[in-house]
Design a protein that fits this description.
The longest helix has 14 residues, at 127-140. α2 (26-32) crosses α3 (53-61). The protein has a seven-stranded mixed β-sheet, with helices on both faces. Helix content is 35%, strand content 27%. The chain has seven helices and seven strands. The relative contact order is 0.16. By secondary structure, the chain is α/β, with parallel strands linked by helices. It starts with a helix and ends with a strand. β1, α3 (53-61) and β2 (67-72) form a beta-alpha-beta unit. Residues 14-18 have low confidence and may be disordered. It is globular and about 40 Å long.
C-alpha cells in the first residue's frame, strides 16, 4: 500500500484526527524544519509523524549524536516508522499519546529538548487537548528551543500560536498539495 493510500484511508476513517489527506511533500517537509540549527541540536522530538516525510528530512540532516524521538499515536504509522528508520540508532519511535511525552522523555533520561516538530492537527483538537499539548511542550522545550507546527491552512492559525508563544513566524510552501506552510514558534509563554 502506498503512503498516499494509507494516509487517505486513515483520513477518511478518522477525519480531523489525521492532519491531512496526504503525506507532506518533500518541499513542505524541508520547510517545516528549515529553522533548525542542525549543528547544535542535541534532542529533537517529532509529534504525529504519520508515514515519515518530515522524519526523513530529520534523518538526512541530524547528526548521529542528535537524539530523535518520534511520537506517533497510530499503531500502523508507528510500525511503519519503526521499519523505515530502524537503521538509525539515535532514533526512537514511540507509539503513544502526546500528553505522556514528558514521562516518556524522562524514562529515556531526557529533561529538555531543542526542537519540537509537530505534524499534529492542533487547531482541530478540543481546547483541553490543546492546553495539554502546550503544557507538555512548556515542560520539555528548552527556553531557547523552537516549536514548529505544520499547517495546511496558511496564516489562519497565527492567533492560536501567539496565545502560547512570544515569537511566531510563518513560512509558506506553495508547491505542497494543498498549499501549506509551517509556523516557527519561540519563547513559550507561561
Amino acid at each position: 500500500m502506498s503512503d498516499f493510500s494509507l494516509f487517505l484511508g486513515k483520513f477518511l476513517r478518522h477525519g480531523t484526527n489525521i492532519a491531512s489527506l496526504a503525506p507532506s511533500s518533500p518541499w513542505l517537509s524541508k520547510a517545516t524544519v528549515g529553522n533548525v540549527d542542525w549543528a547544535s541540536a542535541k534532542v529533537i522530538v517529532e509529534l504525529g509523524a504519520g508515514t515519515g516525510p518530515i522524519t526523513r528530512v530529520i534523518a538526512d540532516k541530524a547528526s548521529p549524536e542528535t537524539r530523535v524521538i518520534v511520537l506517533e499515536r497510530d499503531e500502523d504509522f508507528a510500525r511503519l516508522l519503526r521499519e523505515r528508520f530502524a537503521q538509525y540508532p539515535h532514533f526512537d519511535v514511540i507509539e503513544g499519546d502526546v500528553r505522556d511525552l514528558a514521562a516518556m522523555l524522562s524514562e529515556r533520561g531526557i529533561g529538555r529538548v531543542d526542537h519540537v516538530i509537530s505534524g499534529l492537527p492542533v487547531p482541530s483538537f478540543p481546547k483541553d487537548l490543546q492546553e495539554s499539548l502546550f503544557q507538555v511542550v512548556r515542560e520539555v522545550l528548552d527556553p531557547a528551543g523552537t516549536y514548529n507546527q505544520i499547517t495546511e491552512i496558511p496564516w489562519v492559525y497565527q492567533g492560536l500560536y501567539r496565545k502560547y508563544f512570544d515569537d511566531v513566524r510563518f513560512v509558506f510552501e506553495p508547491r505542497n498539495f494543498p498549499p501549506a506552510g509551517a509556523y516557527y514558534c519561540r519563547g513559550i509563554k507561561g
